[in-house]
Amino acid sequence: MHRIVIVGGGAGGLELATRLGDTMGREQKALITLVDACPTHVWKPLLHEVAAGSLDVDAHQIEYAAQAHWHHFSFALGEMVELDSGSRRLRLSEIRDDERPNEVVLPTRWIEYDTLVLALGSRTHSFGISGAETHAVTMDTLEQAERLRKRLLHTCVRNNALKEAGLHRTVKIAIIGGGATGVELAGELRRMEESFRKFGLHASEPTGDFEITVFEAGTRILPALPERISAMAQQMLQQLGVSVSLSDPIVEVSRDQIRTRSGHIATTDIVIWAAGIKAPAVLGCINGLAVNHINQVTVDGKLRSVSDDNIFALGDCASCSWTNDRSVPPRAQAAHQQAVYLAKAISARARGMAIGDFHYTDYGSLVSLGSSKAIGHLIGGFPGASLLLEGGLAKLMYTALYQKHRTAISGLRRTIVDVLAHRLRRMARPRVKLH
Ligand SMILES: Cc1cc2nc3c(=O)[nH]c(=O)nc-3n(C[C@H](O)[C@H](O)[C@H](O)COP(=O)(O)OP(=O)(O)OC[C@H]3O[C@@H](n4cnc5c(N)ncnc54)[C@H](O)[C@@H]3O)c2cc1C
């Protein structure tokens, strides 16, 4: 049977594996294998909520092995570390026991393919700024988001204890990058702080212990959104007590301070890097595979590598042109649209047919600002027609986007059961994780 291997089970890869499994896998027309470095999937746009402790990770992660069983594909756990496109095979790294690192759980393995889809996503790009990789924390993976949450929690607990000795001080948090990730994280941190105060882990009143500043190198936050929305978002952040620094890029990060191009030095307790993306380094080391300056695989209108007919790429790790001077943006909605397209294109290809090129439709963006507010605009696919949304309605739409992803992955019935179970559990638990 034709062997289709998808590397990366994120927003795009998991949806593609599920769609192909439900069609070609179920009908035994192809053997579909999903590879991922982690055993579970968490939708990446939720990571800032993980970092702020406002998301119950157990309720939102999907186990690849179970998903594979239910949707007629197989799952291989491991990180792709090498690709030999000449002999159409890729190598997965060995897996070691976390507790006993000398013990190998799975040895290094080669997986062969006839069609390969690269869906490895992206990482934060530190642009070579001195000290950024060493001293700033990122939120590229679930583990990193969890580590950040624990660091914030411990800082608050320690600070609260110091209060009794009169040594209490504010915790200075610098968020580098005023895009959607940085802005949403700032909103979530305020929610985290409110809950900590409510449950006695955090003491100061009336304003918080978190002194949050968003540093944006450009002239406005949310540069990808219309100016009016940027201005409203900035106002909302200010109402939440978040400071915004514009047009003064960070040039150096050290253990407890950051320096901007104008020479301004700010002391910091935690620096969170949320600016820019680049695709995983492994893509830049593959012999003969065309990639751009940030390791994204260069693809044609059919999402096929321009250097290899048997390799496709989607999502953040693909460089796909959109309009004359722009590429498809690294967003969950783009990964979703590309997964839907590739499911049809790969199935048509197996039948010796071809379908038209991929066309990205921008449906707008919504940015969440804490528990009950969001802001953004919906375009609806009609050029020139856009709808500005704010407040509770925008938040509802924002939540609906995630439910749409879950429905595409788990089906409507399982999603409804999960949502109801989650709502019931939330009634008996604090809104923010406190340990
Ligand atoms: C905090 C945050 C908030 C965001 N908010 C939004 C938002 O509100 N709206 C929006 O549209 N977008 C948002 N994004 C962007 C969005 O998450 C991405 O565009 C989207 O997830 C890309 O999907 P993908 O399938 O390309 O990759 P991902 O979803 O990143 O998945 C990549 C997968 O590949 C796996 N992988 C990576 N390397 C290897 C390897 N070598 N071997 C095996 N497996 C590997 C990873 O484990 C992961 O499962 C946000 C991103 C972040 C970080």
Automatic annotation (TrEMBL):
Domain FAD/NAD(P)-binding span(s) in chain numbering: 3-339
Cofactor requirement: FAD
Organism superkingdom: Bacteria
Presence of the UniProt keyword Oxidoreductase in the record: yes
Recorded GO MF terms: NAD(P)H dehydrogenase (quinone) activity
Coiled-coil segments: none
Keywords (A to Z) from UniProt: FAD, Flavoprotein, Oxidoreductase
GO biological process annotation, one example: aerobic electron transport chain
Alphabetized PANTHER family for the sequence: 64 KDA MITOCHONDRIAL NADH DEHYDROGENASE (EUROFUNG) (PTHR42913:SF3), APOPTOSIS-INDUCING FACTOR 1 (PTHR42913)
Family: Belongs to the NADH dehydrogenase family.
Name used for this protein in its record: NADH dehydrogenase
Organism: Caballeronia hypogeia
Lineage of source species: Bacteria, Pseudomonadati, Pseudomonadota, Betaproteobacteria, Burkholderiales
